[in-house]
Amino acid sequence: MFSVNHQKFMEMDELSLRKVPYFFMIDFLSDNVEIYRENEIEKSGLLIDFQEFSSIKKKYELNKKIKWKSFPETLESFKIGFDIVQKNIRLGNSYLVNYTRKTKIETNLTLKEIFYHSNAKYKVFYKDFFVFFSPETFVKINKGKIFTYPMKGTIDASVENAAEVLKNDKKEKAEHYTVVDLLRNDLSMVASDVKVDQFQHIDLIRTQQKDLYAMSSEISGNLQPEFAGKVGSIMKKLLPAGSILGAPKPKTLEIIQSAEGYDRGYYTGVCGWFDGENLDSCVMIRFIEREHDQLYFKSGGGITHMSKLEDEYQEMKNKIYVPIH
């Protein structure tokens, strides 16, 4: 169903069973898996800044006024893929599709500067090829327990009573329920006693362009014995991440590929840090990539049968930001 890099996943298992710390990156389709032991990170052109681990050695000042311009596609262009998605939802092929676009941006910041100065739970800069600043945890593993934190639903924080509006928005709520349900099922493939610990928690994300509220939940379970210490096997089972794909997974993947018309690459893949005991990983979203001499920001949102074209177009544009303030 999904093409899989077996050898690399086995290597991840082998390292985690031996309790060797390493960092990994897996692209959206699990075609490319990269593994870096701690002593290889610096030489590899990687910079990592996670909550539990950072490879940053020194602080840098930002001594310039930020210039930032995005060139979103037209509503008509956005509508082409949106209609493909909606048609499939009406036909019953999917009930949630994460539809993403790539937007040309211009900025006087280098990818490295964006890495150093943006504020996010998870940041990675990779070989002047891409940078991301993700607010979304994928899974954490701690002392035999596995946790996931699906994030679905955002709103411009300047809207009056924004947090309440988001919590009570029918479409955002339905989308959130769907992803929570999907990830609860996913977690059940590798864990027992899976339960939702926290539902519809609202976070504020501050950015240079605008502040956003985002809605997330927490789901946990106890790792099944056959997955204990096997980070590669766990990832192979859970990917692609449900929150950035949709449901049901195999058919939704086909819909995404026909609607988007571009290769996501590492965008919406996952990466993580295994410290020898525990794992912290994230979904690679809020993503800027260099293609030749041009920078592109990849962003999108979940589409359900309740989605309105203009709202989804606006959400895709709202997410084109750098969290530097």
Q: Span between N and C termini?
A: 43 Å
The chain-level structural class is: alpha+beta
What are the secondary-structure elements, in order, as H or E?
HEEEEHEHEEEEEHHEEHEHEEEEH
- β-strand number: 17
Content of β-strand? 25-35%
Q: What is the overall number of helices?
A: 8
Mean pLDDT comes to: 92
How is the biggest beta sheet arranged?
A: 9 strands, antiparallel
What proportion of the residues is helical, as a percent range?
25-40%
- Overall, the morphology is globular
Q: Work out the radius of gyration.
A: 19 Å
Ranges where pLDDT stays below 50 over 5 or more residues in a row are none
Layout of SSEs?
Blueprint lengths: L5 H12 L4 E5 L6 E5 L8 E4 L18 E4 L3 H16 L5 E12 L3 H7 L4 E5 L3 E5 L2 E6 L2 E4 L2 E6 L5 H7 L1 H19 L2 E15 L6 E12 L7 H8 L7 E2 L1 H12 L9 E5 L4 E5 L3 E5 L2 E10 L5 H10 L7
Antiparallel strand pairs: 1-2, 1-14, 3-6, 4-5, 5-13, 5-17, 6-7, 7-16, 8-9, 8-15, 9-12, 10-12, 11-12, 14-15, 16-17
